[in-house]
Amino acid sequence: MDIQLYNSSDKFKEYFFSLAIDIYSDDNIWMGEDRENIARLFDKKNYYPIIVMDGEVLARAIAIYNDNKIAWIAMFECKTKDAGILVLNKCEDILRELGTEVIVGPKLDNLQLGLLIKGYKYPQSILSNYNPKYYARVFKKAGYKIKFRTYAFYLTRKSIKKFKFQINDEIVTREFDPDNLEREIHIFNNLNKQIFSGTNDYVDRTIEEERELIISLLPIIDPRLIVIAEDKNNNPIGFIIALPDANQMRKEGKIDRLRIISIGVVPEWQRKKVGAHLGAHLYDNVIVMENYQYAEASFILERNLPSQLLARKFNAKVGRTFALFEKKL
Fold first, then answer.
1. Number of independent structural domains in the chain
2. pLDDT by residue (tens digit) across 168-205?
């Protein structure tokens, strides 16, 4: 089998994308790839796309180097176990030479990570992964171990219920304000750093990267689905972010599902009902938006018991399970 590293040719890009089309051609759940946005990754510094060929494309991946000695492998696909192991090994060779000590994968960014290992009947929601069942065996055979699991909780309009909780008068919730976009960008950037820095290999986004991400999502953002919590002095202390499932629009021509992609509270305000206030505000908004029939809350870490408890209080059930794998070099 032949290993080809990235070059700038259109032929290489076509090979890279053709593999997924071959693998999922008869799969009704797979949503396809955003070629334009993925192709931009090829030109990023420290991103190394790789393909394995033997008369046809058999495997692919992108090795992503971070300066913190923890690197990522993303966009992994393979037709055979041997080709999958080969492309993983080549990623490891590249990242080892750059000084990497630990590799996790699959992980494209802080939002999109993990292999699907349970719940294959559920739809592939926006910014979530989907893969054949055998991929987990390929990672394990290549020497990777599960670092942690995450859950996607599933809710329906018929099953969801609002629970009662003790109101904290020091907490105020409001909706995302696109008319003050620059302020909101700085708020999310600061909150993300306070809440997630140093956890689960989270890599801080610069303010420019935060701006780029939010602006890229503006065409699908509904301000009513993004809620910010503040203290009585108007200092931001938490957020919950939900997006209409734009994947559905591409396939079905309508959207009746949303995905809650993130919820977080700054450390000093945790266990003070901030999450409950955020969830209640979002519930009140969604329940009157009759087009939404389903919701997915993901990804919730297996050890994040408070968030799991909050989801269950709304009568949510585990739908999909993902695993992030790790290998020490």
1. 2
2. 999 999 999 999 999 999 999 999 999 998 776 788 89
Peptide bond into 148 cis (omega under 30): no
User: Does residue 81 sit within a domain?
Assistant: yes
Q: Please check whether residue 274 is in contact with residue 171, taking contact to mean a CB–CB distance below 8 angstroms.
A: yes
In angstroms, the Cα distances linking 121 to 73, 124, 127, 323 are 26, 9, 17, 17
Domain that holds residue 289: 171-323
| CB crowding 210-235: b at 16 or more within 10 Å, else e | bbebbeebeeebbebbbbbbbbeeee
Beta bridge partners of 107: 113
Q: What is the dihedral of CA 152, 153, 154, 160, to 10 degrees?
A: -160
**Rounded Cα–Cα distance for residues 88 and 99 (Å):** 17
- Helix (H) or strand (E) run with residue 31 in it: none
149 - beta bridge partners?
Answer: 323
Residue-wise pLDDT tens digits, 200-220:
678 889 999 999 999 999 999
C-alpha 321 chain-centroid distance:
13
Same structural domain, 199 and 289: yes
Q: Is residue 252 pLDDT above 90, yes or no? A: no
Q: How many other C-beta atoms lie within 10 A of the C-beta of residue 17?
A: 18
Last residue of a domain, one of 109, 137, 163: 109
pLDDT tens readout for residues 10-28: 888 899 999 999 999 999 9
Same domain, residue pair 208 and 301: yes
pTM score of the predicted model: 0.91
Which of residues 56, 90, 109 is at a domain's end?
Answer: 109
